[in-house]
Amino acid sequence: MARPVGILDDIVRDKRQEVARRKVAAPRAALERACTGLPPARDFEALSAEATHVVHAAATTRFDLPLGEAHAVNVEGTRRVLALARRAARARLERMLYVSTAYVSGDRSGVIREEDLEAGQTFVNSYERTKHDAEREVRAAMGEVPALVVRPCAVIGDSGTGRTSTFNVIYYPLKLLSRGLLRALPGSPFTPIDLVPVDYVADAMNHVLLRRDAVGKTYHLTAGDRVETIGEMIVDEFSTASPRYTRT
Question: Is 138 exposed, middle or buried (0-12, 13-18, 19+ CB in 10 A)?
């Protein structure tokens, strides 16, 4: 399994974050349309003239989309956001943050560093492929746009409350396991699982977005060496017997 290595270990909360929150705008947009579909088109011009920081986190995260549909949102949409950022860079833009994913590594194994992108890897699904291609677009634009990249792994609920807006990724199998309804799993109990809470990801993004020296860099927002195995997590959290693991 790939193990991303990051340089962002401890996030220091900054008073500037509170100032930034009061100045955030989240306009509705359609990534598949010209000028990102902002209604009306003059909003595109207004944003490019006024924006000091741009966060591009919009994407389709479905794994089963046909490649063309995923490309239209994740790659073409990113190109349109970059078009806005290029205009904004001629005005007030200080930084653009692009939310990629640790899974741009595709089927690679071993240690994967933040500066790595192209390594001849193949991809499991259209999501991984198109997020890789979108990150490549952002990297290519870094000479014109003060951009930086973050790569979260699988994002789960809040670390304090557990609250989440979507019960996907690991939640459904854990629900079955906690109720004793899933007694066997394909794989090994020693398989590492890399999950990060959403508040860690949000704090990290806010932190690097406000750093001038973050431009041109990539940050892995992952658990890294602190991952637990599936077996450990099940036994510790649910006080239940570990399921039987089978090879497929």
Answer: buried
In the chain the first and final C-alpha atoms are separated, in Å, by 17
C-alpha triplet 107, 111, 115: angle, nearest 5°: 90
Identify the DSSP state of 2. E
Give the Å distances, CA to CA, from 94 to 12, 43, 86, 87, 206.
21, 19, 11, 12, 14
CATH number at residue 107: 3.40.50.720
CA distances to 2, 101, 134 from 197, rounded to whole Å, are: 19, 14, 24
Give the chain's residues under pLDDT 70.
Answer: 1-22, 34-42, 225-232, 248
Q: Do 24 and 89 meet the contact criterion of CB atoms below 8 Å apart? A: no
> pTM to 2 decimals?
0.83
Cα–Cα distance measured from residue 31 to residue 79, given in angstroms and rounded to the nearest whole number: 9
Pairing of strands 228-229, 192-193: antiparallel
pLDDT tens readout for residues 87-139: 999 999 999 999 999 999 999 988 899 999 999 999 999 999 999 999 999 99
- Total domains in the chain come to 1
Q: Are 42 and 50 spatial neighbours (Cβ–Cβ below 8 Å)?
A: no
| Closest C-alpha to 199, from 147, 166, 161 | 161
Domain range enclosing 30: 2-246
